[in-house]
Amino acid sequence: LPFYMRYLGAEAYGLVGFYALLQTWFILLDIGLTGTMSRETARFQGGAVSAESMRRVFRAMEGLFIAIAVLGTMGLVFSADLLATRWLKVQTLGQDEVILSIQIMAFIVGMRWFCGLYRGVINGFEKQVWLSWFNAIMTTVKTVAAIPVLWIFGATPTVFFTYQLLIVLIETIVLVIKTY
After folding, report:
1. What average pLDDT does the chain have?
2. CA within 20 to 30 Å of 72's CA: 26, 62, 117, 147, which one?
3. Poorest-confidence range of 12-26, 58-72, 101-115, 126-140?
4. Does the structure show a pLDDT above 90 at 92?
5. What is the C-alpha separation between 48 and 20, in angstroms, rounded?
6. What sign does the CA torsion over 49, 53, 59, 65 have?
7. Nearest CA to 139 among 98, 106, 172, 171?
8. Spatial contact of 155 and 8, defined as CB atoms under 8 Å apart
9. Residues near 1 by beta carbon (within 8 Å), at least 6 away in sequence
10. 52 C-beta neighbours (distance < 10 Å), count
11. Residue 1's pLDDT is what?
């Protein structure tokens, strides 16, 4: 927190808080879907369901997760201007930078929520140790490594959220590969 406050400033750090709020709202959309996928994967792992049945459930869940992620992301992207001008009160940051930051946040939040499906499958396959290590590494890269990025490329919200977007892309690719 002190490093982010020093590099970004209080107002830009407020955008980070708004981003955390968006992530929390997206988690509410899960309504047990990740747990269901984890349970179904464990049932498959235990021999209670066939590979075909598991594949159908997984594809259905994947479609649902993709649809919700796309709808939520696009909703935030298209409402970024409204959120930046009417809901968030910025004084030192430019409106264009705040709008772009919200749009980048939308993609990050949608992708992070989408990763929950793959985390559920990995848990169901009893790969919790691997997932714990992966989560620890990704969290470290997202938080600690962001400080040198801000120092090198500029301490702006756009740089911070672009870096976060790059990390969530890597995170998604690794989780998809591990799941499949």
Report:
1. 91
2. 147
3. 12-26
4. no
5. 38
6. negative
7. 171
8. yes
9. none
10. 8
11. 65
Whole-angstrom distance, CA of residue 146 vs CA of residue 163: 7
**How many CB atoms sit inside 10 A of residue 100's CB?**
18
Please say if the pLDDT value at position 25 is more than 70: yes
At residue 91, the pLDDT reads 81
Count helices and strands in the chain by DSSP H and E runs: 8, 0
Task: Give SS3 for 116.
Answer: helix
Mean pLDDT of 70-93: 90
Round to whole Å and give the CA distance between 43 and 102: 40
Interhelix angle for 10-28 vs 95-124, to 10°? 40
In this prediction, residue 65 carries a pLDDT of 94
Backbone phi and psi for residue 125, each to the nearest 5 degrees, phi listed first: -85, 10
Q: Is the dihedral of CA 125, 130, 132, 135 positive or negative?
A: negative
Q: Say which residue the tokens 């400033």 belong to.
A: 9
Report the distance separating Cα 137 and Cα 12, nearest Å.
Answer: 25
> For residues 169, 173, 175 and 176, what is the CA-based torsion angle, rounded to 10 degrees?
130
Provide the 8-state DSSP code for 117: H
